[in-house]
Each structure stands twice: as C-alpha cells, then as structure tokens.
Amino acid sequence: MYIGIDVGGTCTDAVLLDRGAVRATAKVSTREDLLLTLLEALDEVMKGINGELIERVVFSTTVITNLIAEKKYDPVGLILMPGPGLNPNLYRFPTDTYIIQGAIDYRGREIIPLRLAEVDRVAEELAARGYRKVAVVGKFSCRNHRHEKEVAARLRWNYPNWHIEEGHQVAGQLNFPRRVVSTYLTCATREKYQFFVRSIREAISQRGIKGGVFILKADGGTLPLESSLEVPVETIFSGPAASTLGVQALMPPGESAVVVDIGGTTTDLALILSGQPLLASRGVRVDDMLTHVRALAVKSVPVGGDSVVERVGKDIVIYSERLGAPYCLGGPVPTTTDALRVLGLTRLGDAERAREAMQILGGPLGLSPAEVASQVTGEVIETIVQEIENMFTRWEQEPAYRVWEVLQKKKVRPSTVVGVGGGAAGFISQIAARLGGYPVIPPYAPVANAIGAAVARPTLQVTLRADTEQGFYIIQEEGYQGKITDRSFNEEKALELAKEWLCKRASRYGLEDCMEGLEVTRREVFNMVRDWVTIGRLIDITVQTRRGILYHVGGGGYRYEK
Amino acid sequence: MKNKKTGLVFFPAFDWAISPTHPEREERLLYTRDQIFEEGVLDLPEIEEYAPRLATIHDVARVHFCVPRVQSQVTEAHLIAAGSATLLADAIIQGELKNGFALVRPPGHHAMRVVHGNRGFCNINNEAILVEYLRRHHGIKRIAIVDSDVHHGDGTQDIFYHDPDVLFISFHQDGRTIYPGTGFPNELGGPGAYARTINVPLPPGLGDETFHYVVDNLILPILDDFKPEFIINSAGQDNHFTDPLGSMRFTARGYAEFTRKLNPHLAVLEGGYAIETALPYVNLAILLALAGHDYSYIEEPERPGRMQENPERAAMVKRIVDQLRDIWENRDRVDLDKIFGTGTFYQRRKHIYYDTDYIEEEQLEKVRRCPNCPGYITIDSRADHGYGHPSHVFCVSIPFAACGACQAEAYDVYQQARKSSQYQYIYLQDKSTDTFLAFDRDKGQEWVSEGPGVGE
Ligand SMILES: [Zn+2]
Ligand SMILES: [Zn+2]
Prior knowledge:
Helices cover 33% and strands 25% of the residues of chain A. With 562 residues, chain A is α/β, with parallel strands linked by helices. The radius of gyration of chain A is 26 Å and the shape is globular. Chain B is built from twelve helices and 17 strands. Chain B has helices spanning 30-39, 57-61, 70-73, 76-93, 126-138, 154-160, 208-226, 252-262, 279-290, 311-329, 336-340, 404-419; strands spanning 5-11, 47-49, 65-66, 97-104, 114-115, 143-147, 166-173, 197-202, 230-235, 266-269, 345-354, 359-368, 377-384, 391-398, 425-430, 435-440, 445-450. In chain B, a hairpin with a 4-residue loop joins strand 11 and strand 12 (359-368). The interface between A and B is large, with 41 and 47 residues. The complex binds zinc ion (2 copies). Chain B: Pfam families: Hist_deacetyl. Chain B: This is Acetoin utilization deacetylase AcuC.
C-alpha cells in the first residue's frame, strides 16, 4: 500500500492507496510544526493498518519553502568568479558578495587564473563578518569545475568548520546567476533540512513503516528521503506538482488537459500533454530570485474560494489574502465562495448568510445579492481564463533553435479542463465554457494532490557532456570530470557512458528497479571544424528514468460528456 | 521608449549547414548560445526572447526574382531567418519593443535582386525583405540600412541602388583585398537615388579608432540629415580582430559602442566566422548595448594588442570620409545628367559571380528615369552554371512609389518580353500593388502571387 501526503498552506491532505484503489483519505490543518502535521495525517489514513503493509510513503514538504520565505536560515557569503561578461554589479544577490579573479570559458578552458592570495583575503573578510557558510560559484563552472574546487579546498583548509557549497555540484545547467542563487539557497538550507530529515526518519520508524520514504520534487519526480539531502532546494513548490500528477493519475492514460487547482487563496494552473505534465522551460523563481530548480510549468494565480471580497468606493474588489472561512461558513467577511453559494454553484454553508454577505457588498451600491455574486464569480473566472490563455501562448511561443522544431506541427490546445481542489466545483464549468472545452471533476478531486504524491515516480537524470577535441567528459549531476582515452569515442559510446553513470547513480539511491524504460531527453552532437577539417565533437546527452506516475487510480476510467 | 524591452530572436539553426565543413554550419552560433545562456541575459527584465517565425514566399517575391521560383532557392531556414526579422519589426512598430536583435542564420546581405543561387553564403536578403515588408505592412517610407560586416553588402546595395527612400551605408574592408571586390566610394546609387548609397572602404588592419572616426564623422551626421523612420543594422561581426576571413581589428566593445551610437531599431546578424574567439563576445556586446546595459566588462580572451594604427592608412580613411561628406552635403546640387547622361533609361552592365554555387551571371539593368517616381527597372539576366544551357531570364520591377505611367509602361514591357523567344522565365514584380507574376515560357504558364492589394 502507498501513502501520499501533500502539505499545503492551510490544509494537509493524505491518501492511502491499495493498488489502483483509494482506501482512505484525510484532511488535517497544517500546523506550525511540520513534523506534527505529517504524523497526524499519517496516523489518520493508517487507522487500523499495520505499518508493515506500507510499501511506500511520499511527502511533499514545505519546510524549505517556509525557511526561505521566512528567511530563517543562516547567513551565507558568496565568492564569485564571473570573469568577463555582464557587469557583475548587475547581479544583485541578497548577501555579501565577493568577486575574485579567475575565469573559465564556454569550453571549460581557463582564460584568467585564480589568485589564491585573493581567496585568502576574501575568506578573512568573510570570517571577520561572521560567516560560516560560503557558496563558491564560477561562470562556466559546469564546463570545468577546477577553479571552484581550488577555492573550496583552500577555504576548507583554512576554515575546516565552514560549510562550503560549490556551484557545479548544485547546478550543471548554463546560467551563472541562477547557479549562484541555487547554490546560495542550498548552502543556506541544507543544515536545517538535515534536521528535518532526521526527525521524519525517526517518526516513520516509530510507526513501524519499513517501506521506502520519498520526497516529492517540484518537477513531479521523487527522491528517497536520504538522497534529498543532496538537493534540498528541489523540494520547494512540490504542492502544485502533486495536484498535477494526481490529475494525471485520475485521467485515462495519454490524454491532454488543463489542470485548474482552485484552493483557498490561490489557483494553480498546469498542462498535461499526451499524458505527461509539461515541464517549465526555465527554473523556478524562489523568494523573487531565479533558480535552476526544475519544476512543472505551473502558474499560480492569487484567487481562490476563500479570497476576501471588499467594496472599495464604487468597486467590488477581490483580494488575494484569506481572513478565515467564507461568511456562509461562519467566517468574518464576504468571500468568493459566498458568491458561488448565492448563485447555487456550491452547496457549502448557509444560503442565508451567503446572501447577507453579498448584501453587505452590494447594498450601498444598489446591487442585488445575485448581481454582486455574478460580478464576483465573473471576475474570478475572467482572471483564471486570462492566465490559462497566457499559459497556452507561452507554451506555443517557446523558443526553437532548430529548423524542425520551428516546423513541427502547430501545437494543439487541450480541450479538457480538469478541476481539482476545494474551490473547483463552483467555477470549473464556466471556465471550461469560456475556453470552449469540456469540464471534468474527477473522483477524489479534493485529494488529487495526495494521490499525485503517492504515485509519483522516482526520477533520476544524468547529463553528459563530452569534448573529444580536449579529450574530457563531464557528468553534470555528479560534478565529475573524466578523461576520454578511447580514440573512437562517439555519440553511441557517449550514450552508453551516460547510461552507466545513471545506473551507478540509481544504485547509490537504491533505485535500481527504475532503470527500465530510460528516456533520452537531449541528444546534441556538434562537429568542431577548424580550417575546413573536423577536429572533434561536442556531445551533450541527457538520460533519465521514466517520468510520471506508477499507476492510474480508479482505473482512470471516468467518462465525460462531449 | 524608457520601459520598453529589447527583443531577441535567437535562431542558431543547429540543424542547418551549407555543407558539413562550411563556415555557415551548425556549429557557428553554438558558443554564442553558451555565452548568452550562461550570462543569464535572457533573464534580464530588459530583454525578451521571441520564438522565430517563417517569412512567406510572398515576402521573398516582394524583393527577389528567384530563378526559376522562390521555392527552388530557399530552404525553411532562410524563411525563418527572414521571418524573425519581420517578427521583431512588427513588435517594435506595435510599440511592444524599443529595439531588437535577430541573432539568426543563414545570413543574407550578399543576395541580390536576381537570385540564381547562393553567393557569399547568402540566398535571400533578410534586410531587404524586412524593408519591403515595413513599407507594405507598416507604411514606413524612409529606412536606413547600416552594414557593419567586413564584406561589402553588395546584395543590399544592388537591391536599393535606385531607391531614394532607402539609405544604404556600408563600411568594410577595401574590396581590392577581400570578397566580393566591390563597395568603392564612387558607387553612390543610380540617377534617381544619388548618394543614397554610401561606401567606405577601409584598408586592412585598422581598428576601433578608425571605425569610430567613420561612425562619428560620416555615418551619424548623414543619418541625422536623412532622418530615417527605421534604422537597420546589418550586424556582421567579421571586422573582429580574430576573424579568419577579414583582416580588420575591431573589438567586441568597439561593436557595442557602435551599436549604442547607431541606436538601430533592429540589428540583423550577418557574417562573422571567428565562432569561438569573437562571436560569443560580440553578440553579447551587441545585445547588451541594445538593451542599454553596461558592456564595458566584456573582454575577449585574446587581445588585439596595443598596436598603433598605421597613420597613413588612417589618414586615407579620413580623406574618404571628407570626400563622402562633401558628396552627401551637395547631393541635391549635383548635375545628374553629367554623371548619368540624359537618356530616358539609365543602364548598367553587371557581371556577378556566385562563389558558393560557381555561377557566372551577366546582367543588363535598366532604370526608367522618371520625374514623378523612382522609375521601373528591367533586368536581362543570363546565368552560366558551368553545365547545360545558361538560364536566361527577364525581370521587371515596379517600385513601391511608382507613378501610374511607369506602372502601365512596365506591364507593357513584361507582355512584350513574354512574346520574345530568348527568355525562359519572365518576371514582373509590382510592389505598388503587391502582385508578383512569373511566366514559364516552355510550359506557357503564368504564376501569380498576390498580396492584399492597394489600399488595404
Ligand atoms: Zn561578411
Ligand atoms: Zn514614374
């Protein structure tokens, strides 16, 4: 049996799955103490079930999200080697930033050497300012990590107690400023995350659970709890990924849909295309900083069922915050849910109180409760529809760098609009109508997120870059640089090598059984030609374990009317 | 202007090459991609990346006579490169963007009005397609093209040689020392567009100092006078000191400084084949300059050295600049009949060599000298491919601003040519109505490509 738990801002959802069937669901309030919340949810779905029957528990966690949002982490100093390029003052990182000499180019060649004396001087200053955590990041360190390693070694030698994080180990993709931010956040949160992992491990064993414990990531993949220590930042924003995977699990395989997850104060939008959730083309924004963290393409819109509605002068305005339950459920102020109640689009709460709420808003303007209610719902729907249109446009307008990518057939927008989350029922038909699509509310929609967590596959990826002219290759995720001795090294051999590394990585994580159905997600080969002669090849290959879900829930066999 | 962004279409055509080891191959913009991605400039709020778009066959036919047809001369990659330029221009004119950079391949500035094949790595002229597109779709009249490639932009010059509303300025390495061997100060445009073509040949070895002398003392003052509504930069980067084809000594910062001063609406990549030592840095520099960012931290790993410019050569450039300034300032006082004769037609013979496809073309170009409009153009073109019969075609081009008499006369000329047995294909390009005709004599068939028509 599988357990999925999704921790949200106000509610935490849990499910117990037995093969494709939902055995139990739970909804508890999210408390200040994350661990207590998780245990409460766990205990509720496990009532009467022996812990030994649980094969797998998957959590989404907000621990890192909260740490970052509340800035409850230790200060981290930055030592950067940007070399020539953008004016480094353009990069604004929220901490003391020291720029030192040293530069690597796009092919990993040193163009400016390091000066260790400068490293020592900067380290002294950091020490004097009280820093114990330092992130060391160089431009193009993903192509050659030598400078980062040398600086880190020097710091460790002089300050053995410091916690030092190197950029190439955190983010192997191109984009230096994002690498800096990702490394900074990793350095800032790793220790606290370790503490969290330790307490989870303890609690799980207390419940007699022997199965695997996994953490959900923003890209919809999972990692074994222990392995997630390597990449704590990748656990942020996993909530929207959970809902999207849940819809995927509740839908027939291979279908496309727009996912509209309407919660208390936010609505998350996502796309499922031919059965797979769409990944964002760039990393997520965390606390207003751009990172390399891969995530599903989810757009959060600040409206939901509990959004406060107020009258401002002659206007009726919807705010993004929540001031408690809707008025019709005994809350203090009118909300969007009250508007739905008046229009008969939900049966939640007390109809009379809902009308009263609309009267409070509309009375002074001479508007009837029904008029106010349709104005409010209309605006919510308009906002969401607009954002869905924007999301479609962004997807259709993704840059293309090859002729075939530009020419490939026009992208077809999905016509199914799936609503999940507490607020979906009242809005989804009208949203679908506006988009010219079909509304669907799958069974178990309120706990789709927990279902998604429960069935999310573990994902591992390995990115190999080989430069045969210079005779070396890099495994980005491992921060490994090796020599190529084989004179006939080619694309096929590179692919084999990448798969070997993926295997190694999988066995280190105890995920050997994920090696079936590997996907090659990137395969790029460039001949290097100088003076009309081919002198070598640049090979970039990414292999990953299968993405998505382990199985569909409820047979995925719901029907909808056309 | 203040809050608007710089648009970028980056289309490196990673699956397109002229041939596997040709300079125009997949690898050309690979390191530029690495640099631009690694710098994170696409995350800057001032820069917005756009997905490329294809130009239409009609857009190409508005500029070129492709033999036998447009489809036989262009690949999708060409249409994407040209379409990316028009896409950015649309966004600029609609006010979404303040300027743009079409960082695209393949290039186009050696492609002339008649296209028998590829010359100088170019099949169709991206800038020329953009100019005609701007006139047709956005009603823009005065346009300037400044060509900063080390090679003379002979294709662009050819297309606008008789067009008084398009100012073409090219500075480049002296044609006696580099392909295509043209671009001298005496090439100044035809009788109806005198001094709308300006060429500044530069002796090999000169660097940023001379570059900026030309910019400050010739290009900017002329642009000030001409007052174009839209400025295009043919942003070739082979003037760079590491370029394998050119012998100039410009730097990435020199290019950025030029971009800042010129302040073009749109820069369109042309040549530049130092794919590792120049392109990543020059492209980044141009993009930052367009976006109004500091480019002073950009530095190539190699340095051009503190070599003094050869004073005699620098002095030669100053003389050319003085001479061209003088010609520009007196352009309306000059006796055109003295230069071009008094006939109703001005004609020139051209020998055109297609270095990539080994084609020799002989052209007789005639322009109607009309007091009311730029006059229609006819071209008799014979191309020897080195095998089989040479292809012999006749082209008639009616300018955008044609008068009624020229338009009527041009249609007559087209009809007459259709009766002649010497041409395999006869073309009529009526830019005034956006209608393009092609007649295949062997098949006795006429194709028509029609635009939206006048007044729409
Ligand atoms: Zn060139
Ligand atoms: Zn006329």
